[in-house]
Amino acid sequence: MTGNSNTLFWGDNTHNENAQDFFKSFNYAMGSKDDAHKRRQFMYCLHSGGAAERWYTGLDEATKADWALVEAAFNVRWPPISIAAKSTEEYVEELLECRLADATLGSKECVADREVWTHIAWADKMAMFTSGADVLSSKTYISQVKKALPGTIRDKLADSYTNWTTFLDDVRNIDIDYIKGKADDARKLLESFTLRIQRMDRPTATAPATSSRHFANITNEAPLAVNNAYSSGRPPANVNAKGPGRVVSVADRIAFRARYNILPHHPPTDAGRLAHQAQQKAWFDANPSGIVTELTPYPLRPGTAA
């Protein structure tokens, strides 16, 4: 390490140094050299004019002549740093907060400059947390953590476990082709659902705009003619078809207004849009034909309520 400015020691607590790490590195570099050699080389590993060099120069000759005394004096001047070790409770908290996200399954993450499958990286982290929490050889928290795992992983695990080692080994050993296949199926399902939502958000003949103002016009204007198929509750064969109509009665208007009033109205916020998407999915599940009628009103867009 002699002559390399990157390994020279300042000793002034301003260069993000760890004095004990420096001393260990020095001893490691010296290898099997005797104490006399160490004493001669030590001075060349201190930055010129730095606090460490000034300290060493100020030592008495008797101390400099004995390497054991130099080491003892160094430890007094730069004692080991007391690291704030994590408590058992902190490890338990990390253990319970460490989640394996469904969206990451079948992909890789970088761990110590190596690519690792996400479910294996998760298991390795959990092994560290359970060891720190002193529960590795027990079944404590396993049931709770297992319930929070994605179904793809949970379906391949045993019903119960007596220790974390076996549980985490089973997670690591799940076939990656199975995980990637399930992840691909989930991705395709999400894409399909997203496409359906996008189509419903576009104005179409079968999905008219459903703002509150639109409904207000229907319920408050002069008598309205509607297709008989709507009034019977059966989806029409063609919503654009022309045919005989009937006059909407006061009772029809009251009934329609009641159905309109029970529709959830979401605000134009992130939370509102998420709630609206869930509402759309529920509507599709209940109305696979995708046809809007007065009996099956389509969910209002966020922010369109009066």
Key attributes of the depicted protein:
4 strands; single chain; elongated; two-stranded antiparallel ribbon; 15 helices; mainly alpha; 306 residues
Account of the protein in words:
By secondary structure, this protein is mostly helical. Helices cover 50% and strands 5% of the residues. It has helices at 19-30, 35-42, 51-57, 61-64, 67-77, 88-97, 118-132, 142-147, 151-154, 164-172, 176-201, 212-220, 228-231, 250-261, 270-286; strands at residues 108-111, 114-117, 225-227, 245-247. Strands 1-2 form a two-stranded antiparallel ribbon. β1 (108-111) and β2 form a beta hairpin. The protein starts with 18 loop residues before the first helix and ends in a 20-residue tail after the last helix.
Short recap of the structure:
With 306 residues, the chain is mainly alpha-helical. It has 15 helices and four strands.
The total count of strands amounts to 4
How would you describe the shape? elongated
Radius of gyration, whole Å: 36 Å
Average pLDDT taken over every residue: 81
Poorly predicted tracts of residues: 205-243
Oligomeric state as shown? single chain
SS summary, helix count: 15
How far is the first residue's CA from the last residue's CA?
A: 76 Å
Strand arrangement across the biggest beta sheet: 1-2
Which structural category do the helix and sheet elements fall into? mainly alpha
The profile of the biggest β sheet is: 2 strands, antiparallel
Q: What share of the residues lie within helices?
A: 40-55%
Order of helices and strands: HHHHHHEEHHHHHHEHEHH
Strand content: under 5%
